[in-house]
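Sample log: Transcriptional regulator, TetR family.
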Amino acid sequence: MSKKLPDEAPGAAPRVRDRIFQTARELFYRQGIRAVGVDAIACEAGTNKMSFYRSFASKDELVAECLRAQVGEFWLRWDAMLAPHAGDARAQIEAVFASAAAKSCSENDCGCPLSNAAVELREAEHPGHEVIREYKRELRRRLRELARETGAADWQVLGDGLLLLLEGSNSTRLTFGGRGSPLSSAPELVRALLAVYAPAGRRKR
């Protein structure tokens, strides 16, 4: 059995790999993926490049891992948002947008990490690309499913409309920020879309 290292003991400080990972997530989100290099990550994490490359094969692989963690956390929040409204797709849709609008009121908010990454990562072969694509496809699928459950006849169109509204309004968080973001109007716009595509009383088909 290998000897347990000091930083693996109960109550010890985070391991070097964990420090690098958490530091990178914060720096990528606040400063941008391209603006942050391996040296900056290692320095901020209190380590060095040698330890970085012992922990991660490359910066690109670290980026992909950070994005996967973000996706996992988002779906946990998604489930928590929908759970109080089980069986009521309209209320679940409204809850998603109400949560997004509330988040836009934070002055520290830097927009959607996945959308930000999609803008920065231009190389098609970058490992983060597939993470982003899978996330966006799943988001579309879930919104379309919620739209179908409202009983909307054109639920595919409604679902895509919700996706466009969520994605578009999220992008304004970077330019407007805080309480001035147009995202704060999204819940009202969602209710208007639902009134057109899924009038109250229409049954699920």
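Observation: Residues 1-12 have pLDDT under 50 and may be disordered.
Observation: The first helix runs from residue 16 to 31.
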